[in-house]
Amino acid sequence: MEDLSYQGVRCDVAAFSVDCPNRELFDQIADKWSMMILTVLDTGPTRFNEIKRQLEGISQKSLTQTLRKLERNGLVIREVIDTSPVAVQYQLSDLGGTLLPPFRALYGWTKHHLGDVLSARATYDARVA
């Protein structure tokens, strides 16, 4: 069986209690859009509209809220570019960059196990139909 730890640290179920700060941060990093936004920023500084173009289906409101949350958590850096019209670009902070290795591992897992998951879904759907 594969070692599911990251840098030797295994998940602590107690960290998921409702008042645990780890849970709040985990929720914010692993939400619907944060991982994808941080992965887009892996390519370097990116303007708001380019992030939006690369994340099909994200609304302007969701992108704005998620970027603000990521900036507040110190994971991205927001820079206003003095052009006409004014532009805004985002880039990973050093702290945000530390999330890329586990994100890449998760992405690799999804590519490696997609067939298994699709098979499990088909089996489940046939069973409950």
TrEMBL record:
Keyword Transcription regulation tagged: yes
Species in which this protein is naturally found: Pseudooceanicola sediminis
Pfam families reported in the protein's UniProt record: HxlR
Molecular function (Gene Ontology), one example: DNA binding
Domain of life of the source: Bacteria
The HTH hxlR-type domain, residue ranges: 20-118
Designated name of the protein: Transcriptional regulator
Annotated keywords: DNA-binding, Transcription, Transcription regulation
Cited PANTHER family: TRANSCRIPTIONAL REGULATOR, MARR FAMILY, TRANSCRIPTIONAL REGULATORY PROTEIN
